[in-house]
């Protein structure tokens, strides 16, 4: 299968992708990674179609789709400098191993992105399920805990996320407002710096949806946070 030589090098006229079922196209002048995240965000926002058509939602699988789509464009246009074939042709680009410090930064960045999308899927699963929120008493109690927690991140939640994730969370927040779900501490809670979830959404979410996407490393970090309600509720 023909692949791109480099996902960091723009092809002529920029990277492209088209989702025929929804007529979705790539953001203008998007880098490869931004396009991949935007496509994931679009698909997460269409859960019925995603299930019906078996769309990939995991980052690496979607990245391979975008790669193949653009490699085919290059192949059709005879832009051979941008593609390589596993059976020969243009040689693959040389790999330069990152330094230890660069490896650490890459691992940290990948972990942050994974946590963001894990949180997005948690909230999306609950909202799209149509199941009710936890009781008002429980959401208020959770919010009180988060309000005084040292891991309660400050500032506008939108600056914590890449544009694709922020767009999905914005839609989730709008659905929260439509359902008139609030707590007595809404003005004091923002983002959990451990799980990177918007707390105004998270405190209303039934525990089973949280458990479904809770990574072991995130759970370990939450267990170290004094008084966190997630580990406490899991023990009940």
What's the topology here?
Blueprint: E1 3-4, E2 18-19, E3 24-25, H1 32-44, H2 47-53, H3 59-76, E4 83-84, H4 100-129, H5 136-147, E5 152-153, H6 163-178, E6 191-192, H7 199-202, H8 207-212, H9 216-223, H10 229-234
Antiparallel strand pairs: 1-4, 2-3, 5-6
Structure in words:
The protein is built from ten helices and six strands; from the N terminus they run βββαααβααβαβαααα. It has 236 residues and is mainly alpha-helical. It has two domains: 3-84; 100-234, no CATH class. The strands form three sheets. The protein has a two-stranded antiparallel sheet. Helix 1 packs parallel to helix 6 and helix 4 (100-129) runs parallel beside helix 6 (163-178). The longest helix is centred in the middle third of the chain and has 30 residues, at 100-129. The protein starts with a strand and ends with a helix.
Q: Which short descriptors sum up this protein?
A:
single chain, 236 residues, mainly alpha, 2 domains, two-stranded antiparallel sheet, two-stranded antiparallel ribbon, 10 helices, 6 strands
């Amino acid at each position: 299968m023909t692949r791109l030589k480099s996902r960091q090098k723009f092809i002529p006229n920029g990277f492209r992708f088209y989702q025929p079922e929804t007529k979705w196209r790539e953001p203008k002048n998007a880098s490869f990674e931004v396009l991949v995240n935007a496509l994931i965000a679009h698909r997460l926002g269409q859960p019925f179609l995603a299930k019906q058509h078996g769309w990939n939602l995991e980052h690496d699988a979607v990245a391979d789709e975008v790669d193949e789509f653009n490699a085919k464009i290059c192949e059709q246009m005879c832009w051979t400098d941008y593609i390589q074939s596993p059976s020969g042709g243009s040689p693959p680009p040389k790999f330069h191993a990152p330094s230890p410090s660069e490896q650490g930064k890459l691992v940290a960045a990948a972990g942050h992105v994974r946590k963001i999308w894990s949180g997005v899927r948690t909230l999306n699963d609950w909202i799209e399920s149509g199941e009710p929120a936890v009781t008002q008493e429980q959401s208020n109690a959770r919010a009180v805990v988060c309000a005084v927690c040292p891991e309660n991140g400050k500032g506008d939640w939108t600056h914590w996320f890449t544009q694709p994730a922020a767009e999905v969370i914005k839609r989730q927040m709008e659905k929260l407002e439509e359902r008139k779900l609030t707590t007595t501490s809404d003005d004091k809670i923002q983002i959990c710096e451990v799980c990177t979830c918007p707390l105004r959404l998270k405190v209303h979410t039934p525990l089973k949806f949280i458990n479904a996407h809770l990574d072991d490393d995130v759970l370990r970090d939450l267990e170290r946070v004094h008084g966190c309600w997630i580990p406490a509720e899991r023990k009940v």
